[in-house]
Amino acid sequence: MIIKENFELKDLCTFSIGGRAKFLCLIKTKTDLKEAISKARSENIKVHIHGGGSNTLYSDKDLDLLVIKMNNIGVNHNNDHLEVLSGTPWSYLLNYCLKNKLYGLEPLMGIPGSIGGAVYGNAGAHGMEIKDAIVEIECFDLESNEFINIDLENFDFKYRYSDFKKKKNLIIWSIKLACSSDSNSKNGSLEEYKNFRLEKQPQGKTTGSFFRNPENDSAGRLIEAAGLKGYVIGGIKSSEKHANFFINFNNATFKDVIDLKNLIQKRVFDEFGVNLIPEIITVE
Ligand SMILES: Cc1cc2nc3c(=O)[nH]c(=O)nc-3n(C[C@H](O)[C@H](O)[C@H](O)COP(=O)(O)OP(=O)(O)OC[C@H]3O[C@@H](n4cnc5c(N)ncnc54)[C@H](O)[C@@H]3O)c2cc1C
Question: Is the separation of the CB atoms in 212 and 160 below 8 Å?
Answer without folding.
Answer: yes
